[in-house]
């Protein structure tokens, strides 16, 4: 029997592409789930349920509890808003309710684990990453299109048995779940892939299949800059390996930052590009290509 059982309570903050997919999978499998969302979204979910259309998990609609402010202590809290909406979303979770909870942030960037631990010192904040192409096409409607949905949870710094139990439960849902021993590796490894693809695809206004040909030099340069900064922070990364991963991604794949720019939504530019520039300054590493692309995206804004 796993440590995380069906009787336990899962809360999901931010039912967007990632949070909505996980909330739907958990609820559809019979787990007790509460979604925490803005008032209008919470009302729609509570009345109409959560609809998922998924390449990997099939199509289904599941009833789900949804509230604008968390009212009951969760055993596991998934934190999944966009970085641009994170501060306002966190105010929907009273700190007194996350005491001893396992907090799983599925956020982009490398700075959020530290900030969440400072905010919720009595919780167990797990470094985690997820690779999936999943989009909220409307409130309460999720479209998952990638041929993969992979997560990694790091057991360092948190109760290992609870992390292992959660990993087993998520694997039972059909996710490809790994467990890492070093939270820095978990965060930086995803960042090594995410930052080059997000910045270059968004700057070019093109999916990965276009930029890995026409803009390969920029992809490689940003990846090398991430690796150089990570190494000074004690993390060794494989740039050739991550470029190979980019080559294997379906050509039509668009990073979420590009989709946000196309839709006129705020971009996670500071949480991604800004985070690398700050980490680079801390250790005295030059990142000219990243700095150039970030500066140009700051000027142009939405597409």
From TrEMBL:
Cite the EC number: 1.1.1.169
Span of domain Ketopantoate reductase N-terminal: 11-147
Keywords carried by this UniProt record? NADP, Oxidoreductase, Pantothenate biosynthesis
InterPro entries in alphabetical order: 6-PGluconate_DH-like_C_sf, 6PGD_dom2, ApbA, KPA_reductase, KPR-Related, KPR_N, NAD(P)-bd_dom_sf
| One Gene Ontology term, aspect cellular component | cytoplasm
Alphabetized GO MF terms:
2-dehydropantoate 2-reductase activity
Q: Record keywords: NADP included?
A: yes
Q: Which family does it belong to?
A: Belongs to the ketopantoate reductase family.
Q: Please explain the role this protein plays, according to its UniProt record.
A: Catalyzes the NADPH-dependent reduction of ketopantoate into pantoic acid.
For this entry, the protein name equals 2-dehydropantoate 2-reductase
Organism name: Marinactinospora thermotolerans DSM 45154
């Amino acid at each position: 029997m796993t440590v995380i059982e069906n009787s336990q309570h899962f809360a999901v903050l931010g039912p967007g592409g990632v949070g909505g997919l996980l909330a739907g999978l958990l609820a559809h499998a019979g787990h007790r789930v509460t979604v925490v969302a803005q008032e209008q979204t919470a009302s729609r979910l509570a009345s109409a349920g959560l609809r998922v259309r998924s390449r990997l998990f099939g199509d289904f609609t599941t009833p789900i509890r949804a509230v604008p402010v968390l009212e009951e202590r969760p055993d596991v809290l998934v934190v999944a808003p966009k970085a641009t909406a994170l501060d306002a979303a966190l105010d929907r979770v009273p700190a007194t309710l996350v005491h001893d909870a396992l907090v799983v942030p599925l956020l982009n960037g490398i700075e959020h684990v530290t900030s969440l631990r400072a905010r919720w010192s009595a919780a167990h904040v797990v470094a985690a990453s997820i690779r999936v192409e999943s989009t909220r096409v409307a409130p309460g409607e999720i479209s998952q299109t990638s041929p993969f949905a992979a997560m990694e949870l790091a057991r360092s710094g948190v109760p290992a048995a609870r992390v292992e139990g959660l990993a087993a439960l998520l694997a039972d849902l059909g996710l490809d779940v790994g467990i890492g021993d070093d939270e820095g590796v978990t965060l930086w490894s995803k960042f090594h892939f995410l930052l080059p693809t997000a910045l270059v695809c968004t700057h070019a206004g093109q999916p990965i299949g276009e930029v890995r040909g026409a803009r390969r030099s920029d992809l490689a340069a940003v990846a090398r800059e991430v690796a150089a900064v990570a190494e000074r922070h004690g993390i060794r990364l494989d740039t050739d390996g991550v470029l190979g991963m980019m080559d294997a991604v379906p050509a039509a794949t668009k990073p979420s930052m590009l989709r946000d720019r196309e839709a006129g939504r705020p971009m996670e530019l500071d949480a991604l590009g800004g985070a690398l520039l700050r980490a680079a300054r801390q250790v005295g590493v030059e990142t000219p290509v990243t700095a150039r692309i970030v500066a140009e995206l700051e000027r142009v804004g939405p597409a």
